[in-house]
Write a structure and sequence with these properties.
The chain is an alpha+beta fold. The structure holds dioxothiomolybdenum(VI) ion. Dioxothiomolybdenum(VI) ion binds near residues 238 and 349. It holds the Pfam family MoCoBD_2.
Length: about 725
């Protein structure tokens, strides 16, 4: 019986809850030294003096590395900076420049963490400050086109928006803003670096082991073959761990200099600067429609913040290009520089912020036209990708609207704002569309059948807590014809066959086909071995007449002719059988537009006196191809929704406009939802099998869950209160 699709509990769950799972910072290496990062306390300028004498003399201190003493790197430390996600502009103590508050300016290494922390506090650093720009409101007055604008960020224009607007019955024109937000996985970034001669091993918490290998090798000027990156467990990634940041290379530099392994774990406040964030956005939307709700013109112009060091763009207008059929449309992206750390990928980078603006504007238009919000969206349903004209690889959005509305009870909603109450509370119901690209990249895997008939399958992918171990074990077991408990799936090691970054929601869609192909290949070897073997009860049969199930080969015509995997191998010298496979997207990648879609419905209760907002319940209905595991899959979507609720109501990094430091750089003051903030979440996955994505029919699900949620909640708040908040987060002060 196939296990793929079933609600199998996490295979790694027991190891995680018992502490047996070893995370990056838990590598018990002999002579392990402890490093502490010393961050800058100004936002822009130079380090004038850095007095390390007192710190160096303190108990247990092994090394104080500053820009004066750090080893010089090729290209000033920029050799690996060329290609995100892995390669970013880093701060590796190569000069005296300070580009943002919280930038690494020194590294202190000692025999214990406490000794390193104490010494780090005794560094005397004098700075020369320069004027800073930390106010997005002012910075955005000087927007610029990203120099290395990726093709996807280029300005687009189709049709004629002026005439589309002139002929409209209703026009919404509004500015939506989203704040700077920082990733806060439970496990902070952590690296253990250990050298053996000229070979480096990194135990690094990362979404991309092979990316870390290549970037660190380039940055240090050594061969990638001499770098091994190991990461069996990640305590949350969300995009921040897709890139190789400064601390990884600094740990390697210190370990090489000391000749002993070094551990460097970022402190929680150090998560707010050197390892990326979601930038501020200002999004200007113009949406026009005819009386019957057909869009006649749409314009989406984005300004996002970035750092001095690097042009990194939150591509918030991409969704607007493809989500609705609209003949006349224009999009643009611009950047505004702030003296902060560089932004980066954060769960649905572009789609999460972009759908807030677009799906709020569509809601505003529904009131202007007095058309039901679902009906308005159906009026503009895109039967193919409006941008490329290509057919969708699969799209079940109509069914998402229908099933979501039914489960939610949308028909009970009275359209008028402030028209629904429960006791004293104002009740609001809002909805929005969710979408995210269905990405896929090349990946490889290997599979081994051991002499005892069990199997090990490997791919150098990552499990961010998402369920990769579990779904790959299910797929491998089904392909091998083995029960789940006889298959071990391993990941997170550059010694394994290469897999892509676990970002862009692509691990399942990319790695699963490779795992399936490798498992089928080794199973074929086993079957061929038996069929060609005179001593096998299956001798002489054709492969297609043999059933492989539960660790047995059985003749279909005669169930008495059968033998277990181990018997075949035993007669052949007892050596394990092995196969590997590469899988990559074919021409279908060009022929079809690949997207996941969904519909999100939210009910909020708002206290009319105090403005307190409660999210009572959320229903999300998604078309995501074949669901590989109902339990881990639903959890992925729920996790995205919870984050969407935090984005809607709570999350915002407060930057001190004088010093550039995040004021709320801790989990007490950087608000994210806790259990009590979340009412019920109900997930529907509609029946869909994408024939044009991969051999599993499965699209990714890591990011779509957050998209549309902030808009659905803001739309529900409007419905409850009559107050349109276009500036996230929707906090109670904005309702009063
Ligand atoms: Mo995801 S933000 O692409 O790791």
């Amino acid at each position: 019986m196939n296990s793929t699709g079933q609600a199998i509990s996490r295979i790694d769950g027991h190891a995680k809850v018992t502490g047996a799972a070893r995370y990056s910072a838990e590598q018990p290496l002999p002579r392990l030294a402890h490093a502490v990062l010393v961050p800058s306390t100004i936002a822009s300028g130079r380090v004038v003096t850095i007095d390390s004498a007192a710190a160096s003399a303190m108990p247990g201190v092994l090394l104080v590395m500053t820009h004066l003493s750090a080893p010089r790197l090729p290209a000033g430390g920029m050799a690996g900076a060329a290609s995100p996600p892995a390669g970013r502009v880093l701060n590796l103590l190569q000069d005296d420049r300070v580009h943002y508050n919280n930038q690494p300016v020194a590294l202190v290494v000692a025999d214990t963490l406490e000794h390193a922390q104490a010494a780090a506090q005794n560094l005397r650093i004098a700075y020369k400050k320069e004027t800073v720009q930390l106010d997005f409101e002012r910075a955005k007055k000087n927007p610029y086109k990203p120099e290395k604008a990726k093709d996807e960020a280029a300005d687009t224009r189709r049709g004629d928006i002026e005439s589309g607007r002139r002929n409209a019955a209703a026009v919404v024109e509004a500015v939506y803003t989203t704040p700077m937000e920082h990733h806060n996985p439970m496990e902070p970034h952590a690296t253990v670096a250990a050298w053996d001669g000229d070979r480096l091993t990194l135990y690094d918490s990362t979404q991309y082991v092979s990316g870390v290998r290549n970037t660190v090798a380039k940055t240090l000027g050594i061969s990638p073959e001499n770098v091994r990156v190991v990461c069996p467990y990640v305590g949350g990634g969300f995009g921040c761990k897709g890139s190789t940041w400064s601390h990884v290379v600094l740990a390697a530099m210190a370990a090489r200099q000391l000749g002993q392994p070094v551990k460097l774990v970022l402190e929680r406040p150090q998560m707010f600067g050197p390892v990326g964030h979601r930038p501020n956005t200002e999004q200007r939307i113009m949406l026009a429609a005819s009386r019957d709700g057909k869009f006649t013109a749409m314009r989406h112009d984005v300004i996002a913040s970035t750092s001095r060091m690097e042009d990194w763009l939150e591509t918030a207008a991409l969704t607007s290009r493809m989500l609705y059929a609209c003949p006349n449309q224009q999009t643009s992206h611009r950047l505004a520089r702030l003296d902060t750390g560089t932004p980066t990928f954060m769960r649905a980078p572009g789609e999460a912020s972009g759908t807030f603006a677009l799906e709020s504007a569509v809601d505003e238009l529904s009131y202007a036209l007095q058309i039901d919000p679902i009906q308005l969206r159906l009026q503009n349903y895109a039967e193919q990708d409006p941008e490329s004209g290509k057919p969708w690889s699969s799209k079940s959005l109509r069914e998402c609207y229908r099933s979501g509305a039914e489960r939610f009870g949308w028909s009970r909603r009275t359209p008028q704002p402030r028209s629904m109450r429960k006791g004293e509370m104002l009740v609001g119901m809002g909805m929005a569309t969710a979408t995210y690209p269905a990405n896929r990249s090349a990946a490889s895997a290997s599979a081994v059948i051991l002499p005892d008939g069990s199997a090990i399958v490997r791919s150098g992918s990552q499990d961010l807590g998402t369920g990769t171990y579990t779904i790959m074990t299910q797929i491998a077991a089904d392909a091998l014809g083995l029960p789940l408990e006889r298959v071990k799936f391993e990941l997170g090691d550059t010694d394994m066959p290469r897999a892509p970054v676990s970002g862009g929601s692509q691990s399942a869609a990319s790695v699963a086909p490779a795992v399936k192909a490798a498992a089928l290949a080794v199973r074929r070897k086993l079957v061929e071995l038996a069929l060609a073997d005179g001593e096998s009860p299956l001798s002489g049969l054709q492969a297609e007449n043999v059933t492989v199930e539960n660790g047995w080969l059985t003749a279909q015509a005669d169930p008495r002719r059968r033998e277990p995997f181990a018997a075949v191998i035993a007669r052949h010298g007892g050596t394990a059988l092995e196969a590997s496979a590469d899988a990559k997207p074919g021409e279908e990648k060009q022929q079809y537009a690949h997207h996941s879609f969904g519909a999100v419905f939210a009910e909020v209760h708002v206290d009319p006196e105090l403005g307190v907002i409660r999210v009572e319940r959320i229903v999300g209905s998604y078309g995501i191809g074949r669901l590989l595991n109902q339990k881990t899959g639903h959890s992925q979507l729920m996790g995205g929704i919870v984050w969407g609720a935090g984005m809607a109501l709570m999350e915002k990094t407060e930057i001190d406009a004088r010093y550039g430091r995040a004021v709320n750089s801790n989990l007490a003051e950087y608000h994210v939802p806790v259990n009590a903030d979340i009412g019920s979440i109900d997930i529907i996955v509609v029946n869909e099998d994408d024939q044009h994505i991969n051999s599993l029919g499965a699209k990714g699900i890591g990011e779509i869950g957050i998209t549309g949620v902030a808009a659905a909640i803001a739309n529900a708040v409007y419905h409850a209160t009559g107050k349109r908040v276009r500036d996230l987060p929707v906090t109670l002060d904005k309702l009063l």
